[in-house]
Design brief:
Blueprint: H1 2-12, E1 16-17, E2 22-23, E3 26-27, E4 37-38, H2 48-55, E5 62-64, E6 75-77, E7 86-88, E8 116-120, E9 125-130, E10 133-135, E11 138-141, E12 143-148, E13 183-187, E14 193-195, E15 216-219, H3 230-241, E16 244-249, E17 254-256, H4 265-269, E18 279-281, E19 287-289
Parallel strand pairs: 5-17, 6-8, 7-11, 13-16
Antiparallel strand pairs: 1-4, 2-3, 8-9, 9-12, 10-11, 13-17, 14-19, 15-16, 15-18
């Protein structure tokens, strides 16, 4: 029991608390939450080379967001926002029941994932849907999750969320301005395991050389940032300090952000100069395997 407790304590101590961030008058998770921890000095994982190789050494960093409709949108609603029914079509047993304070005008992510994300002022509750559709006076979705951004409490072990890893999506989205948190990243293949704060895996592959859900990756301190400027430079500095958290299976090195007219798309495209070999995995804590 003691070694297990020591491992849990070590996982909780990865990096140091950062300044945190706020949105809609709410903390976006506590300062000591994994998304907000400075991991620039955290030790490299012994399997880092294998993890990075599996994601792609020559594949390039890709901003999966832009100035218009490209990315995962979100909406901040008032505390008095009316709650509406939500019907879950696929993973109701791992979903937090409705009603949710989702306006029928809430933006839906384009493409097949169709995420809907709403942050409620005052309560600081985050509501996220996957596979969302407007339905009558409410919504239907494959599944949904609620997160208390003040406490940062994780999902029950084994539960998914609107993201495969069981993580909240909003805290990992890039937004214009200072970035003081880890970014959400997708990788092509993951193993049948997860590491806290993730609570769910989405793989049947037991290979230990594949990254687990929740793995933290960072841009190597030696990577030269001199060719970069503007928003791209802000993002790369954040990737050195706060890194990325593996949240879903998908294209290699795709980091996620919210669409925003303040993004300079040409500047964001310079991130495509960064190869996968410029990243490393940090020790992220004990794995929960399937």
């Amino acid at each position: 029991m003691l070694p297990l407790l020591a491992a849990v304590a070590a996982a909780a101590a990865i990096g140091v608390p950062g300044p945190g961030t706020t949105l809609g008058g709410c903390p976006v998770l506590p300062r000591d939450h994994a998304f907000n921890r400075d991991i620039s000095q955290a030790p490299v994982d012994p399997r880092s080379d294998a993890y990075v190789r599996s994601i792609g050494l020559t594949a390039k960093l890709h901003p999966d967001f832009a100035s218009k409709t490209y990315g995962i949108p979100f909406k901040v609603v008032p505390k008095a926002q009316k709650k509406v029914p939500v019907r879950f079509t696929d993973y109701g047993d791992e979903s937090d029941p409705g009603p949710y304070p989702l306006p029928l005008s809430a933006p839906i992510e384009g493409g097949s994932d169709r995420h809907v994300i709403v942050l409620q002022r005052g309560t600081c509750m985050l509501y996220e849907l996957f596979g969302a559709q407007r339905s009558g006076n409410g919504w239907s979705a494959s599944n949904g999750a609620k997160f208390n951004l003040k406490t940062g409490k994780s999902r029950p072990k084994g539960w998914t969320s609107a993201d495969a890893a069981g993580l909240p999506i909003l805290p990992g989205l890039a937004r214009p301005g200072a970035i003081t948190h880890a970014l959400r990243v997708t990788v092509p293949r993951t193993q049948k395991a997860y590491v806290s704060p993730a609570t769910h895996y989405a793989s049947s592959d037991s290979s230990a050389d594949l990254p687990p859900m929740g793995l933290r990756l960072r841009l190597k301190s030696s990577f030269d940032l001199k060719p970069f400027h503007g928003q791209a430079l802000v993002i790369l500095k954040a990737l050195k300090r706060y890194g990325m958290i593996v949240a879903d299976n998908g294209s290699p090195w795709y980091i996620t952000g919210a669409p925003d007219a303040r993004w300079n798309d040409d500047n964001l495209h310079t991130l495509g100069q960064v190869p996968g070999s410029a990243f490393e995995a940090v020790q992220s804590g004990p794995l929960t395997r399937g």
